[in-house]
User: What shape does this take?
Amino acid sequence: MTKTNRRGFFISLGAAAIIPRLRFGKGFGVLKAQSNSQHAVYVARNGTPVTNVQEVVRIAGGINRFINLDDVVVLKPNGQWSRQGYTHTECMKALIDIILNRPGGFSGEILIAEHIHRTPEQAMGGSYCWNISAGSNRINNWPDMSYLELVADYHNRGIHRVTALPMYNVSQDPDNWGVATGPADVPAGKHGWVRLPNYTSVNGRTITPSYPIFRSAYSGKLIDLHRGGGVWAGGSQTGQQVKLIFLPTLNNHGWGNEDYAGITSAVKCHIGFQEGTSLHSVGYGYSRPDAVGDSVGHLITQVFQPTFYLTCAEYSGHVSRTGGATHTRTVGLCADPVTLDYWMSKHVLYPCNNASYFNPDNNNNTRSTLLGCNAKGIGTLDESAMTVLISDFNQHQMFVELQAGWNWVSFNVLPDDRSLNAVFNSILGQVEQVRTQTQSAMRSGGSWIGDLADMEGIQAGQMYKVRVSAGCTLAVSGTPISAPTPINLQSGWNWVAFYPTSAMAIGPALSSINSQVQQARSQTQSAIRSGSSWLGDLSQLSPGQGYTIQVSGPVNLIYPEG
Assistant: This one.
């Protein structure tokens, strides 16, 4: 077995090839994972801002899943407030570094773009993200740099493809912004706003949708953010793709209570990518947050669509955007803002103080906003339809990749909740039957039927036969079982777990029962004890795999540390 990093390692498990593939270690677990991956949320928590971002991108499939070699990447943070009210600078830096160090290289460019709806003079002051002043304004954020200082640091290190682009209305900064209908008529030397026909929201009020066309300070190219837009140079498209990534915060928009908006996070983040404030006023000014959600849904489906949303909840303002906050040390990544806001609000912000207006299952303004956006086909508020993958630096987890059919499985971690539903939660859509040496349970109509279902659930020391309808990954997190923990064997055949965290040759692994052991079997291999030697093709035991062992009399099996 080969260790891959400080937190985990990989071996195999399965039923057909039966060289088990198991990932085990500290980090990466699964909560409420279903077979439907349409609404996938990836979460990393309890690391540093850097390791959390690195981990959440890794478990989401790696940066190459999202970013190509020569893409133009636009990062849109929240920047209108101080402290935890603006996107954590170190989290954003971590994502930039991941992109710059993309496997296979990165020859594109990265722009940080945000519209805080202030004049240039105000926006460049010490109260906002671009030049946020050190000290009090950076509490609950990265104390080292503002956004412009971050960009300057890259430039000082010779990395000029990272640039900053403060956004303004045309009326606020006519020297640098103009009105356009597309890349062909963006005023020379300026950025452009394309103003689209009015959209009437569900409350009968209208917004004026818009999208920007940026002129890159690095390459001079025009970057068209419209769906189907792209990168332009010399009057034609370059073939490069534009990837828009939103980096929202997670805060209460009110001050110690619920205001007209509820939470401010991924859905509300779209207000900072519009010319003017009609998106804000369309519903929030009339007690109709659903109209804001509906209008955001229109933007996503018709105007621009982010590649993904990365909510940076290093601190979560349970009192307000700049007031009392909890060090939640969590980042969440999702392809849509509704699913992400639902999960992050319920499982990160709500536990901070149990305020009912943070729970999106309740009738509140957060739920109303999300429902409005969801009505446009964006995301889900049905938690059973979500696949949530969680990597927690404070937990130990194991993953077993199963093949369709029967698999011999064992556990070297035990969760607090050992019920079948809890242990097999990550594969409830695929698991059909579970057997021990004396009991069994079948999955039928969302319930478990059989004598195993009536017992205390998964137990230490046992091997389980698990039948699944299709290949899938079983993920279990909990307390690690010490390798030398005794396993009581009875005369004859025993279904046995393997506790060590790395593969081990059969001789040392079973040395504690040399005087009684007669035979050992895996799902596809076997070995017989002959004198002081083992004969057969089963040469080593591996984590995640279950075994049957025959002994001549009662004995305790004690694995060596490993």
Remarks:
- The CA atoms of residues 351 and 358 lie 9 Å apart.
- The two ends are 11 Å apart (CA to CA).
- Residues 1-36 have pLDDT under 50 and may be disordered.
- Residues 487-557 form one domain.
